[in-house]
């Protein structure tokens, strides 16, 4: 940022203009030299006249003599009439600009009196200064945003088309400044943990500026933090070879040091290390640990083990401080005492962590676990970070959190975690800090954690806990009865505490009375398993106080399996108007028997749900109302999903071939709202399908799964969708319903195609077609034929694929399924392409595009643009192909098909590679890797192979080889034929 001229006189105009004042002048030099009065562009004249204006604008309001201007415009060989020309240019500009702006002074000229921000360069300088201050204050999020705004002011080449030596010198200087700003911005990206996003931009920049070592250094760091160590080292090797060949020098010491740190897997490289912000306020030391129980008993070996792990964060035995971080993860069933033990150990270790202790209940056992970004916001506030300095995204908050903890000794207790993914962003990752995690699952995928499996108490420990709560006198005389009680509790700490507390509160009871009450196995299992006894008693009190309508709502809503439920879905369950349903649900929220997850959404705590179901089994009359409630919910989801499907796929006859519904669904006035509903309801919708697997409504459940197939290609719900599809395949097979099973296996085929598991997809598709044919399900037969054609394309069996597509088209035409025909035509185009008939492929893709355009809704039209792009690329019509792919990408993005956006980036990269635009090819390939693609690991192999080709063409041979090695590993794992192609690329002959 240093060395850039300032223009203070041009940005000190006094008070802002009144509304009735003339529009102000604005000028641009960070691109073509331009002028505006308000929004009206002004004529700036010939190239030499623009050169004069640029020279004056860049003089910071100072006077430029005639000799200086002549030298700026023509250098050492000015024309004979140079002075007259300068005067003419100045006169013309004076007529265009406002009076008093271009002034004559001391035989020269100057531009004066411009408003603040009137020159884009001055505005860029102000923004850069603001970013520098924000970064110095530790506000990296704001600094990045401001710096990006500054960079956005560039509009192509600086002083584009302006002649003269002065303009050329300014172009070089300002381009260098732009690159410095860009490096600073990318450096802050990495400081905030946005390494994966930065790789694509850095790949393109290093291709454009191959000798700029700072960009290479940032690319190495970004690749390393993205888990691509081999590529990071390959970048260094490419850089060293290029510098030696071009300049005869070695990489600078900083780059060499980074290579060594990557080779040594330096832990300090693994995470960003943002500069600590200077602050005048005292360091906040949070003390958030809950109170420990006074009657903590036993667990001596666990206390010792956990204490040893925590102490390792304070001293590694070398006198050099602690290791990177100490993490202990306690796992066990509910009620086993994980939280009690963790809190007890944390209190014992407080002295070792003088900078504070953080605590959070992550609600992992509930339907809506705490979001890591929300927890990070709370932690940052507790550590003294101002709200205005807390960024929005998870990655940025995690980076700031680690930066704030750098140099501190803080203990973090993460209670009731759902899984490792929820925990990772919340780990400090810095020397001297430690984390204790409790969860119901073993976190085997939490790298570096000390795993502790917490079992039930030993009989002696259980008896000691019971005795502490009840009292020695009451237990001593009835030791055998006390052993019976703790045995009936299964030695589970929560159950023991509940039983003992009940006895302690009833002085007239003996231990034998309590033991007798727990002797009933049915009651004991129902009330003591995992601590349900006390919770159920508490719920019983609240349930008994409900009005009849509230109690009915409580019972029926607990039947649904989803993690939460929307107001509209709840209205279907209760068979009530939305307004009445909302009143009931809000009243249940007030009693704490229901939670409001978000406006219009509700959820049960998992134990409350179990209790609600028990009440439904006990109190709901007639019992058939339970099945009727779930049937209404299934109808609601199916009717609404069919509405979404019809909006997204006009002309598709499938919606008329779904099972009829008795309960209506929602209606939408635009496609965006329809998609919002589908993606927000994904988890409860799929849970409803799975729940129906054990009912007599398999057909509508399978149809719901099919109508919600957009959830597959979004990439967000693919795994959940696959599990549901497999469950429905098994349920329909057991029921012997060929029609339902055929459709269930069709949905599973779709999932397997997205994952690139082609062999499994072929088996499922073949089975699905046999079932659909036997059930005379023409709709399913046609769509499965299309799927089998796609499978053939993956296998290189283009003639077979063509035959399947033609079968599908024939079936769709017979059913007047215009969308099905249009979709399959796009796929048929790809078959012709594989057969080498490019002109026919182009023609059929154009037919598909025309058919889609007639149908209106653009979502499926993207497949036609995509197919036409493939055909045009094969015909070497690169510009047209890029246009088609760009159209497809826009549609995929608008309809949230993330994986298809990735596929389109890959195809765009192919076109750029064929057109020898290697840097662009590499950039789009990186974007495809970041987004993911339909086709799973095999498609990833294709992407990294292409990336390697582009990098090799850019002279980055070592990084290219690292890409090809990754591709080879992926191909060999799947047995893909492309492995031989990659081996050829890696052979010495190919390298030569």
Q: Output the radius of gyration.
A: 35 Å
Structural category = mainly alpha
Strand content: 5-15%
Oligomeric state of shown chains: single chain
Nearest-integer average pLDDT: 85
Topology, number of strands: 14
Measured distance between first and last alpha carbons = 43 Å
Strand order of the largest sheet: 8-9-10-7-11
Instruction: Give the low-pLDDT segments.
Output: 1-20, 274-281, 316-324, 529-535
Question: Notable features of this structure?
Answer:
globular, 14 strands, mainly alpha, 46 helices, 992 residues, 5-stranded parallel β-sheet, single chain, disordered N terminus
Describe this structure in words.
It is built from 46 helices and 14 strands. The strands form 4 sheets. It has a 5-stranded parallel sheet, sandwiched between helices. A 3-stranded antiparallel sheet has the order 1-2-3, with no helix packed on it. Strands 4-6-5 form a 3-stranded antiparallel sheet. 49% of the residues are buried. The N terminus is likely disordered. The radius of gyration is 35 Å and the shape is globular. It is mainly alpha-helical and 992 residues long.
Characterize this entry briefly.
With 992 residues, the chain is mostly helical.
